[in-house]
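Side project, low priority. Logging it here so it doesn't get lost.
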Amino acid sequence: MQQDLDRTRESLASAFDTLSDNARRQQHLYSVTIAVLIAIVFRPAARRPGGGQAPGLPPQPRVAVRGLDRAVAAQ
């Protein structure tokens, strides 16, 4: 009877250790996900698609790439 109780206690302790490890891992992944989302939302406007051009400002100069005009016109 005592052996059964000892095995049950060890099994429960092992299960709770595993749950604790998984909870820490999940919390870390959650924190990293939140940090990445914040970085995406608050990244500099100049690095966003479209150059982050604000309305009312003159357009930024474009760099000519040889052959690109033909590729764009073909589409």
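Brief comment: Residues 3 and 9 are 10 Å apart (CA to CA).
Revisit when time allows.
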